[in-house]
Amino acid sequence: MFDGGMTMSFPTVNCPPVLGNLGKSRTQCRTRPNPSFCVQTLLQTDESGNLPESKKRSGSSSALFKCQAQNSLLSQANTVGIIGGVSVLSTLIFLEKLVWWSSRNGEECVPFVVCSDPALDGCLISQGSVHSSLCEIAQKEVNHQPIIENLWHKRVFLEQSGARCIVIPCYISNAWHDEISEGCSLPFFHVGDCVARELKEAKLKPLDAGSNVRIGVLSTSETVAALTYEQKLSNQGFEVVLPDRATREHILIPAIESLNKRDMEGAQNLLRVAIQVLLIRAVNVVILASDELQNLLPRQDPLLKKCIDPMDALARSTIKWAKSAKKP
User: Fold this and answer.
1) Do residues 168 and 191 lie in contact, with contact meaning Cβ atoms separated by under 8 Å?
2) Which residues of the chain have pLDDT under 50?
3) For burial by CB atoms within 10 Å, which of 65, 206, 310, 312 has the most?
4) What pTM does this model have?
């Protein structure tokens, strides 16, 4: 996983802009109306690409719960429930990792059910300006309660659909993990816990003598970085290093602005500078904790050897749980 406390190599997956076949089992996406919110429910189909007869019938969510016992996918002890985030593409990329990494060497893919709501993106955007990043909007002092309740209801829906653990592959939504998980009796993985645990197991060594191992966090939201990673990493004995105000205002925010203007070269160069600033402060690795920062640098960029995607750790933890839960 980590090499000598300096660099790391994780299993990689090529993530195309549009996700097609997810391994041996294909998926179909259906829109299901609901009095409280509109969601897309993603269920694995059989190898012929057909949904079970019970899923072809339209009806309320209660009808879905009644057929749970007859559906092998939703009754498996290691079924993963996935709450889609504000970025549908990020959810699909997470699914691809979950499928490919869990089905290596001819193993069965982890069973899963996904509840995704593209309206979440619209809810956040409506609270900010056109040029604001989603993370910037999320940290503003606005009423996030409707969004939190939306995600909470999705969690309940997944529980009633047969999920045996819950994950949220979303950089923003994990900041509300405590609120969304309220009353949940299932394992509910926090991406910050998954990252902190893997870094602890890597047995990294401090780059500065006499100091703790330092972990850098780059996010377009200070709130997301603090709520999702800072405390979790500190609890494992790491020193968390965030960009200072000058780096945020003159490097990180302009990088996102360049990305919004489709100035990819400018955005990439600014991100490289932001990473280097943290590396100069003797951090062992840099967590890229936002959708905007992921896949911005080309895969062959040497700086990526010093960076990690938190969703990789979440996927690995989910697969580890699913394989353990499957054992008799």
Assistant:
1) yes
2) 1-41, 44-73, 125-141
3) 310
4) 0.76
